Amino acid sequence: MLSVRRFSMYVLRSLRLHLKKIVVTLLAVQLLFITTYVLNGHSLIMDGSWRSFTAPFLQPLTPTTKNHTYPVFDLKSTDSITRLYEKMNFDTSGEWIDTYTLKNDLLTMKMGPDKGRVLDSVDDLRYYNNDPRLIWSVVLDHLLASDSNEYDFSWYDWASFESLNKLIALKDTNVSCQFVCENAFDKDVLESVEKEIQEPLFITNRNKYDEEVWYNRERKMLNSNSVTQIVHDHCKDNDVYYKGAPFELPFIISELYGKMRPEVYDLHAKNHLLYFGATPLSLTVLDSDKEAYRINLKESDSSQSNIVQSKMLQGYIQRHTNEMQNGDLLFNHTLTFEKFLHHKSTEKRKLDIEGLDKTIFSKEYLDLSPSDFHFDAKTKIGELEAKLRSEGLSLHDTRYLQSLKTSIRTAPALQGKYFAEASEVADASADGHHRDKRFLSLGYNLLNDPQEFEARLSSMIRTFQKFTKANGLISWLSHGTLYGYLYNGLKFPWDVDHDLQMPIKHLHYLSQYFNQSLILEDPREGNGRYLLDVGSSITVRTHGNGENNIDARFIDIDSGIYIDITGLSVSSDAARKYMAKFVEEEESSDKDFSTLIEDYNFDENEKFDEVDDCEDFAKYTVYELREWVNSHPDDFDKSEKDLVTKAYKKELVMSKSDSPERDLTPKQRYLLNKKYNLFNCRNKHFSSLSILSPLRNTMFNGVPAFIPNKPITALNNEYVVPPRYGFLTFQGKVYLPELRYWFLFPDVKKFANLQSREPKITRLENPLNDLKFSDINLLLTNIIKCDFHSVFASLFNSLNSTVYRLKELEIQYDPDLSEEEKRSLLKTLRNGGLSKNMKSPEKDPIIYIHERKLWGKVKKILNAANIYNIASQVENKKIEEFVKVSKDLFERNLEEFNILDSDNGKTVIDLNSKGLNLFGDNKKTSNVIFGSDEKY
């Protein structure tokens, strides 16, 4: 068999011999193509360059792997550019527009002095960007080939290190600790770095460095002595491994320092994660929302090895040499994932957790039990210790047991803060108080690009919901997330996080089996990578000193954005005054809460979990602990004394509150809350069993989710929900029910041309609070004309989710439907055509960034007029689609609501005619639906 090299030489000799014939043939083909193209009415778009027309003939063959065919993306092809614009803005699937190959992508240097150079071997790599197609292919193939369920983990392979790679790529510019320990980068060094890498080191607010006043002010934030001290305390030279070694940086951040600008902190956080980041305990791989698989990670004292350093990549290439074409190799990650799922060895990786029911999302309602809100820590510790003696414990069980033992020995008042936010980062736009300190990153252009931010939030909640469904974990939407869902099945666009609650029993399942696991989204659907981090004191269920109100977080490792997860349980915190009416409901009595407390016969011998499960200082009340600290001052440091004082002051405030339980002892409060099924999180948000149960099955952000039994009641305990579903204004935002979307009011005034200031835009004549169907086309057209392209993209992409929620509302709040009829119709809706083909309302963030970069290249070779024409062509088509759906919705004739029998294709039920008509003639009266919770 000819080697690749010899075969290439043979081809070249043949080409030389037949060059004249080839040239003549190509010219004839080009002439024929141009003639045909022009005769069919097409025009040249490349401003004097006719190479784009020959591109379809000259591009390489479409890569194939067995029966899988992948489209070739060509920047010089009109069809490719149009396809890119449409996919970038209106395709939220997990599919990639192009391919990832060994030669064209991995071995071709993308930046630095070697930009454009093609390396001979992966052994020559000094850095690589961890494209998910590369990492998934190599890791899964390695697991299948080795028949192993563990491998060497490296953060370098799973988190984004693109900013650090730019520094690794340097050969001439010296980057020292000084450069990364100043509040803002030294501009001379920065310009030298960017000149060598041939692109910006960062994009977000990069133009600020050209403003002398701003730059000088930022540089003065730290004097030379401060910088010297920061370098001494937080950074050290990498003398051992650096000197051009692959994947090494000239400096190591030994400890994070937060008081810096975000672009500087980005390098700090990434460097610290690379060199000191704790290895997760496992990878949890999702098969959509159906199953979850566990991959164990090797425990090693040595530094983490990426797929090159561990030779996994080299092994992959060797195993797939026969698939090479023209010296290149396609990394087909979805095909590899399919092989992984169907391989016989994968069955042993499947997670089936005793006590969890994976079928809970098949039910319309999920009943909760009071036992879900209790947890016996001492019994659990005993079970795990017995298992340790008899058969040993997994790494997850071992860490969980250690956590339980630590938690029951620590007094609530003495617990230091577990989660650390990047709140010190010196730029409010970084939103550091809503980012995990370890992972805060600028992403591609995260601070200046709302689309990327929304993409990350959407991907995160969708992956978490699929994760809980795949494992049978119970959680539900809460606080502002539940409030946003109420209107259109999405979060409020101004929310910067999501809030979820769980019963305490399931919080412990989360902690035991998934704490410190990296949760990986199904790569066929997206590329989410999230660390599940559970606090170290979840046996403590009171507010304590207020430092640990959040129990767990689901953290995006590429940005630091997270979901807050709180557990609800019985505790000794005093129930809020608003809970009194739910106690009365439970009693079916005319007595008020205060009277019920007076009449209650406390059994002082009844088990008091908060004390009986605890040891040492954890048994003390805050008053007893304060007295002990005051009498033993030398046994406690200042921070511990401050924590106790803080908890003591909070208890004093509670004793003067309007809570009906304010005069009771902690044990009495606990017993009373237990009797009346009053549950709270550690931030003292209370709920009751009657508010929560049964949980209701619904769709949020396009995926299944649970909401409380009485969402309006739950929300009115925190907010004031306007009773009408209709036109709303809130702090400069406007909700237009006909579009089922929130807008900034200044934007609405502009694209509705309410003040007649836009001469080229048709003015909206109907009032915003009484839009007609005919107004929709006008508003969408104006949105595009006003350059709100991302707004229209969000509107279009969320169409499935918002239409689904609208029909759900119409059924839920129809007074003419019985409870049984509502249950049946909602089940039909949930199992019908629309929910089965529900698309994500936002793009996958990694694919979004990739396509934005490709579009950036397009903008360099295409003029503004051509871009405008391509965008208009795509957007006009999408406006037509949106208007068609809106017309069918208004006329109650939407095809997706006509549910057909899968066997004979005949209509089983037409949901169009079911439920309220929220846009009918009587909409001003029928829309008053949020006044109270309806039984449905």
- Terminal CA distance reads 71 Å
Shape, principal axes of CA atoms: globular
Low-confidence parts, pLDDT < 50 over ≥5 residues?
A: 1-69
> What's the tally of helices?
37
Q: Characterize the biggest β-sheet.
A: 9 strands, mixed
Q: Roughly what fraction of the amino acids lie in strands? A: 5-15%
- How much helix, percentage-wise, in residues? 40-55%
Q: Rg, please?
A: 30 Å
How many E strands? 23
Total individual domains? 4
Mean residue pLDDT: 88
Q: How are the strands of the largest sheet arranged?
A: 3-7-6-11-12-13-14-10-9
| Secondary-structure content class | alpha+beta
Membrane topology: Single-pass membrane protein
Domain LicD/FKTN/FKRP nucleotidyltransferase: 468-719
Subcellular location: Membrane
Organism: Saccharomyces eubayanus (Yeast)
What structural keywords apply?
37 helices, alpha+beta, globular, 9-stranded mixed sheet, disordered N terminus
